[in-house]
Amino acid sequence: MQLFKKITIGGSWAKVGQDLKDGDLITILDEGKEVEGKFGKRNVFSIKTTNGIKNLTFNQTTINNLIDAFGTETKQWVGKIVKVWIIKQNVGGVLRNVVYLSHPDWKLTENGFIPPVKDN
Q1: Which one of 34, 62, 86, 102 counts the least CB within 10 Å of its CB?
Q2: Which of 76, 39, 3, 56 is nearest to 103 (CA)?
Q3: CA-CA distance, 9 to 57, in Å (whole number)?
Q4: E strands, 29-78, in order
Q5: Is residue 2 situated within a structural domain?
Q6: Does residue 53 belong to any structural domain of this protein?
Q7: Nearest Cα to Cα of residue 74 among 103, 43, 110
Q8: Which domain holds residue 37?
Q9: Domain-located, residue 13
């Protein structure tokens, strides 16, 4: 039987309403770590909030947004300021606040996240 080390993350986790509020601007501090969680692998990043340095799991929508804004290499995300979007969604039959991140200039519409139109 082959065994694997379990990676744990030190520090405190960002909490909606305390550390993260809709419209906040936060800074990504590291390139993230893949951590095995209760429901599979999670991509955990260190962020700087108004309450200090916290951990935050980036969901796939956030990852897609940040790839579109900053590229596929998470090393390029370090030091980037991003906007917090908190959306109430049905998760497992319960309404929960879900955190999404995007480039600070992006808008959220009923069609999803929209980058600003670039002038030619």
Answers
A1: 34
A2: 76
A3: 11
A4: 33-37, 40-49, 52-57
A5: no
A6: yes
A7: 43
A8: 25-114
A9: no
pLDDT one-digit tens code per residue, 80-101: 999 999 999 998 899 999 999 9
Dihedral angle over CA of 15, 87, 85, 116, nearest 10? 170
- Please check whether residue 86 is in contact with residue 98, taking contact to mean a CB–CB distance below 8 angstroms: yes
Which band of pLDDT confidence, cut at 50, 70 and 90, is reported for residue 5?
Answer: low
In a domain, 7, yes or no: no
CB neighbour list of residue 79: distance below 8 Å, 6 or more residues apart = 27, 28, 29
C-beta separation of 16 from 26 below 8 A: no
Beta strands in the chain (DSSP E): 25-28, 33-37, 40-49, 52-57, 81-91, 94-102, 107-109, 112-114
Residue for token pair 């916290």? 54
